[in-house]
Fold each of these.
Amino acid sequence: MKKENYFKIALYVILTIVILGFFRHTLRRGMNDFDVVHRAATRVLHTENLYNFEDGHYLYKYSPFFALLVAPIGLLPLSYASFLWLLGMCISLFFVIRMAKKMIMGDKSPPEYFYLLSLLLASKFLVREIRLGQTDFLILLFIFLCLLFAPASGGIFNQRGKEFVAGIFLALAVLIKPTALIFIPYFLYKKKFRSVASTIFMSLIFLLLPSLVYGFSKNMKLLLGWKTIISASSPPLLAVDMNQSIFAFFYRLLTPAPYEVNILNLSYTAVNAIVWVTIVGLFLLLLFLNRKSGAIGKSFVHNKESIEYSLLFIFMALFSPLGWFQNYSSSILAIMILVYYALETKFSKIPLKAGKDKSIIIMLALFFILVDAINFETVGRRLNDLSLYLSFISWGIFILIASLSKLRYSKIA
């Protein structure tokens, strides 16, 4: 056996031990966000109110429908439910990565260490997601299934049927977190009207489904309570360090937020205007890049819309007022595209003009330094907190956006 094979075996054995140890530690210390979900599931079983400010910091902020969807886990003790949730998260992430790989390179075998490097670059988001027992992997799974059905042709469904099914999956994602709504304006731009109509219709159906348990009147009160919880709990969190959204990015830099990193003291009205202009500008950039796809001959990626989809996934967290850094698990598709580019090309198999420009690889390395290399374990709590206040993760996300834009503008993907 070659020495290289021994190295691979040793590497994967070590990684397996580390991952199993991490899972064991996660289950022993508990997953705070999943505890909230489990509590909501048990409340549904007893037709209790889901939205109580008495719950303190760990408020339930998902829709009544999601509580109904996960109600069966409320039948289990928290320890057993946590194990099943962790298993479900891993299964969801596995299929998300498989579908992302299919979108990037079709049936082609991935380059060596492709999955390992992709997971390494996304590790800060993925590890935090699992530690908390969050819902983003499930949301990503539903959206990838939506994108699987959204294209035309093939399969046992006709085009109408496929777009209707796509809308069902997108509605499921939206009813977990409304951030998935960012796909709606893009689908409208691409004239996928049936998918949009299906999403709206099924979202309304899902919103009404808890009436089967609570009754119509009480379900309306739950929906009002959901709105109240979101409206009341969000403003105090808009500039905290863990929030790496575009809102927090500008609030910390341009308002007198209590983190001593502001460079200007603008009014919140002015900063909100800057935020929304930036959001519109980034979405227009997405549409511009989509227009540029027509000029690409043979795309570097299997699905030409991979660039657009990866940007939309990023926007889900970036445009959310409460875009916690673990929510950038949604950047996994973007990271996989760039890792594939770095491994597959090695600066020799890409068009000559692009081959002379190493900026994409440099930006990917910079992303790793800003996002993954700086953490509590490597630099200590004080510097790690400072990096969050200075929005290093947001800067890293902007680098991802620039790298993806470069790929499209250079007519590579």
Note: The chain has two domains: 31-233, 235-413.
Amino acid sequence: MADERKSASFEESFNQKVLVNGRLLINQLAILVKLAQMHDIKNVAVEKAADVMMGTLGAFFEDSKSFAVYLVGDYFYIEDNRVKYNVEDFNNFDYLVQEFKKRKLGALSFNTQVNTAELITFVSVFLKAGVGSDNVYHEFARKLGASGVAGLATDELKPPKATEEFEKVLDTVKAAKRAYVRVILRVKELLDGVDRGQPADIRKLKRSVQSLVDSVYRNEPVLLRLSAIRREGDVLPRHYANVCVLSLGIGKRLGLSKYQMARLGMASLLHDLGRQVLPKDLLDGDVDMEDSAWEIIKRHPRLGVQTILRLKGLNEVAVSAMIVSYEHHRNLDGTGYPEQLEEKEMSLFSRIVRVTDNYDATSSSGIYGKIPMTPEKALSLMTKRAGQYYDQEILSAFVKMMGVYPVGSFVLLADGSLGVVSTPARASLGLDRPTVTLIRGAGGDGPGAGELVDTGEKDGTGVYKIAVARSLDPYQHRINIYRYLV
């Protein structure tokens, strides 16, 4: 009985170590790999990073002589404990996940024989592994074994199984869909209240936005797919929700805190509220309107500020929301509307929403026009105006999130097959390497309609197996691509 209590005590202590030091260890390993990529392996910066990591390993060894780090899906586990990370950790965690996957490394175990020199040896072998080879893991494991390290061991990445963890991933997909739909419903309630002249209470909307913030961290690709779907009806509520999703994606990449993300979510969601109090006949998406009508539409940023002031429950986010409402049609170079009497820098949130609002509006029917641009064309046009209309750093973060061919792009692959981009390219593979859901296969023994094609996949010689040839206009081909995104 005493042994059982002692064992339970050690397990509890180790689990606490994971909670406290787990994210430190993953961050330190990511930094060590990055430094070894940038510098010679014998550089003093690499040695110092390895020394720091040894300190954290030592804390774990106080409770266990050995332990393992596992990659399951897109998450790291230390033994049975998932390693949780903060907003500022995202880039390091995501980087290390992709580097592990490239080498098909599924587990890395440490024991008390490990030392600074062995950590550096591991990283050296890790970086020299022939990424793209079908046998990349076995080559890596063989070279690591030949190096003589005694304090490290590895295991190959296993294909996902229908385990409890897999069910958890499915739950995050469902949660993302619920969060997105719930925001649209709350926006519709808000707009109905504005139409009736009733001061709406938006506390429910704030809770819905918080759920959306959580889902951006847990399953962003699902939200990007949902934001790319274009359907008749609910044009404005969907536009508000889409701008919110895309803005939060940028905010995550800029390293905003959870508190800042919640404020950005509310401000981006309410950015166009002034449109709701304009005459309804002006909101049909017809861009060929008379000058007098255009002058009325240009009032909506100021009307948005006035409408936000009448809402209940905004509190501390009211100022951010009003600033974004007022500034979201201004350009970085001072042009746009409303006109400014004096030169003033746009707020960070306004510069983010300037990008996401324009992208979603130009690639959606019924916002700026009846026939939308393709996602790829809309993004290409925006990049030409970087530094003039749009903040260069923010637009760069947006492009990295969306890729050259954003989710929802109708594309022709090099083998003649047609498909719709369903997952954006991973920045580590190149921005033109998305995952595509096929609408029509190329025939023969290749994949058919409905199957996924990862254009970032390489053959045994390290050459990409297939590429996107170009994007197409689904309206010209009369193809409904959106059912492939649901």
Note: The beta strands are 66-72, 75-78, 81-82, 105-111, 152-156, 410-413, 418-423, 435-440, 452-454, 468-472.
Amino acid sequence: MRMKLAHWQVRSEDACRQQCSACSGCSFISFSAASGDCSWFRQCDLQALKQLDPGDDMRMISNTFKTHYIKEPSPRRWPQKPSSTTTSYDYTNEFKQVPGSWAQSVNLRPLLDVHALAGCQTTYLDLGSNIGNWITALFSNRSLNGELNNALGVYGITRQAGEICAWGFEPNPAHYERLHAIERRLHRQSLRRVHFFHAAIASSNGEADFWSDNAAKFHEWGSSLLNYSTGMTNTATARVPTVNLTWLLAMHVGVHSTRRVVMKMDIEGAEFSTLPDAVEIVCRTVDLILIERHDWFFNPSCHKWGTCKKKHALQHQQHLLVAFEAALKRMERLRSESRCATRVLNLATE
């Protein structure tokens, strides 16, 4: 049986219950006989559940789920970060890698403050915030996205004010106003350690062209640093700042950090060039990565929304996928040797 985070594919409710009973972090299940989907949760407010108005097929499917309490979840220890400090990254040249324009940008200025995340018990890095749903849910009373909810719950991370610092990174100018509104609302709630950066995560500090997929219906989910579709025209581009992931973690988390660090990475193909360069610092600073892979970028005949023939970004750059797979295997090996604290979990594709 193939397992993804917070989800199993089973044939019956009894099988769903058995899977939950065998899972240390599972406390509640939602099972749909129509789809064979068994989703599990560490926390759930059964009194807050409600049926959705059947406005489309997805809502009709959602209404086929039945939710049940199964058992109390088992406590889980937070993984220890490796004690070794050996790394090839040059920590003496951090500020030499910073574009001068950052100092003039009010939005990017926190990146220049090495103490910006000081005192945070948990740091949540939202790489690819889109319209800010994950950070919004993180600090609300409603249920989180299933993957993030279980990732936090499994390790006993609470969502109380002051315990979590959240930084989001989103380069799409179409979302800046909405993200500003979310940030201001959270600040009014005394959640001052929340900030959205108008920048893309990449393998270097600088600037790059950002391409919109023009899919306003889906909040431009497929917008990317990669011009991968014939629907992305020159009129849809913007010049955006880029932040080096290695630099970000070195400056603001640090190899000696004992705080908890959870990172969501949904950066529309940039993960293939970004993560391999950052393996060492990720292993020393990040406890958990929730990553959405965009392998379909390498297949011109496959697109997650059905417009397969338009894809062409990486079909001739298979070496990027090879390097990415090698980086994941290296992290897995280092973790088995207690030299990497990072657990990697795949997000379901939208």
Note: Residues 1-5, 303-312 have pLDDT under 50 and may be disordered.
